[in-house]
C-alpha cells in the first residue's frame, strides 16, 4: 500500500503540459485502460461512445466556472474568490497577503472590499460593498502552470459546453472534451459539484492519509437521481463527478444538496462508479490518488509512463484517459 506522498511523484517533461486547448474539443487523444485485463490502448476521444454498454449512464458535472480572479483598481493586489458565504462576503485567496490584513479596504470590481477575517490557512473573509461585477472585471481562474494570463479563448474553452450552475473556481476538465453532438448521442445525466481550490492544492502532509480535503458543495436533482439509480453502470466524467457519487451513502441515491470532503486514495475502493474518464493529473495530487484507487496504482503509473513516452498532452487542456 502506498502511503507516502513521494509514492505519487513522477517526472513530466514541461513541454507535455498543454497551455492551450486543441482547435476542436473532441480532437484529444484518449488512452483506454482495461482494469480487468490490465491492458492499455490508444484511441481518440471521438471513439468514447464505442466504449459504452447497454444501460450505461454517463454522469457529468455541469458546474460553471466563474470569473473568480480579480485585481484591485491599482493592479497591486489580486483576489481569487473561493466560496460565497453570507451576504456579500466571500472566502478568498489574496496576493500579497501582507497588504490584506483585517480591516484593509481596496477598490475592486467596481465596489469596495474589506477584509473581515484571516483564517488559519491564510484565506481571507472579504466583504464587498455590493455584488462585484465578475463578467466585467473578472478573469477566468486558469491554472498557474499555464504561465500566462487568461484571455478571451479561455472564456469559452475553460468551460464545458454544458456548464450551467454558477459556482466553480476551476473547470471540471474531463468534461471539456465533450461537444453537443457527442452528448446528443449518449445517455447522460448532470449533477453539480462546485469545484473549489482545495481539489487542486498540493498535498502538504507527508503521509497520504493525513491529508484533509476542503468541503465542496454539490447538488443531485430528482431527475439525475432517478437515472443514476436505474443505470447498470455509471460512467463518471472526471474526479468531481466521481467524488459526488462515491460520497453518497449505501442504497438508492436521493435528490438533495449537500457538501463533501471525501478523499479517495488507495487502498480504498469505489462502490458506485464503474468507469471513469479523466485527464492526466499533476504529480502528488489528490486527483492522481483517486485514479490510482480506482485502477490500481501500478497500472496507473505504467499508463502515465506510456503517456509520457508517447507525448500525450497533460493537465487541464490535455488529453484524457478512460478507465473501464
Describe this structure in words.
- It contains seven helices and 17 strands.
- With 324 residues, it is α/β, with parallel strands linked by helices.
- It has two domains: 243 residues, 3-Layer(aba) Sandwich (QueA-like); 69 residues, QueA-like (Thrombin, subunit H).
- The strands form three sheets. Strands 2-1-17-16-14-3-12-13-15 form a nine-stranded mixed beta sheet. The protein has a six-stranded antiparallel beta sheet with strand order 5-6-7-10-9-8, with no helix packed on it. The chain has a two-stranded parallel sheet with strand order 4-11.
- A hairpin with a 6-residue loop joins strand 5 and strand 6.
- Helix 6 crosses helix 7.
- It is globular and about 60 Å long.
- The two termini are 22 Å apart.
CATH superfamily of the largest domain: QueA-like
Strand content: 25-35%
What number of structural domains do the residues give?
2
Tally of separate helices = 7
* Helix amount: 10-25%
| Strand adjacency order, main sheet | 2-1-17-16-14-3-12-13-15
Provide mean pLDDT, rounded.
95
Tell me the name of the CATH class of the largest domain.
Alpha Beta
Query: How many β strands by DSSP?
Result: 17
Q: Gap between N and C termini, in Å?
A: 22 Å
CATH topology of the largest domain: QueA-like
Instruction: Report on the biggest sheet.
Output: 9 strands, mixed
Amino acid at each position: 500500500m502506498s502511503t507516502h506522498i513521494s509514492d505519487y511523484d513522477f517526472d513530466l517533461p514541461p513541454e507535455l503540459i498543454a497551455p492551450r486547448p486543441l482547435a476542436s474539443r473532441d480532437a484529444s487523444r484518449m488512452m483506454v485502460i482495461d482494469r480487468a485485463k490490465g491492458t492499455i490502448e490508444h484511441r481518440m476521444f471521438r471513439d468514447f461512445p464505442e466504449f459504452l454498454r447497454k444501460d450505461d449512464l454517463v454522469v457529468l458535472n455541469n458546474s460553471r466556472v466563474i470569473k473568480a480572479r480579480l485585481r484591485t483598481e491599482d493592479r497591486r493586489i489580486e483576489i481569487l474568490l473561493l466560496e460565497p458565504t453570507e451576504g456579500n462576503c466571500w472566502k478568498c485567496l489574496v496576493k500579497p497577503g501582507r497588504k490584506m490584513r483585517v480591516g484593509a479596504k481596496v477598490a475592486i470590481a467596481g465596489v469596495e472590499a474589506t477584509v473581515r477575517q484571516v483564517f488559519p490557512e491564510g484565506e481571507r473573509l472579504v466583504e464587498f460593498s455590493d455584488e462585484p461585477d465578475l463578467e466585467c472585471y473578472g478573469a477566468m481562474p486558469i491554472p498557474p502552470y499555464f504561465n500566462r494570463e487568461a484571455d478571451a479563448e479561455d472564456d469559452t474553452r475553460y468551460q464545458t459546453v454544458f456548464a450551467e450552475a454558477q459556482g466553480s473556481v476551476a473547470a471540471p476538465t474531463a468534461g471539456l472534451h465533450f461537444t453537443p453532438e457527442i452528448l446528443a448521442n449518449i445517455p447522460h445525466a448532470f449533477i453539480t459539484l462546485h469545484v473549489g481550490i482545495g481539489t487542486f492544492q498540493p498535498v502538504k502532509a507527508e503521509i497520504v492519509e493525513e491529508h484533509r480535503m476542503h468541503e465542496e458543495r454539490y447538488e443531485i436533482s430528482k431527475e439525475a437521481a432517478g437515472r443514476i439509480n436505474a443505470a447498470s453502470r455509471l460512467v463518471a466524467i472526471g474526479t468531481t463527478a466521481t467524488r459526488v457519487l462515491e460520497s453518497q451513502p449505501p442504497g438508492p441515491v436521493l435528490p438533495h444538496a449537500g457538501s463533501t470532503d471525501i478523499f479517495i486514495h488507495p487502498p480504498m475502493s469505489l462502490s458506485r462508479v464503474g468507469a471513469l474518464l479523466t485527464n492526466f493529473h499533476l504529480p502528488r495530487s489528490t486527483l492522481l490518488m483517486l485514479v490510482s484507487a480506482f485502477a490500481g496504482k501500478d497500472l496507473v503509473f505504467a499508463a502515465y509512463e506510456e503517456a509520457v513516452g508517447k507525448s500525450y498532452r497533460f493537465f487541464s487542456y490535455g488529453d484524457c484517459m478512460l478507465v473501464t
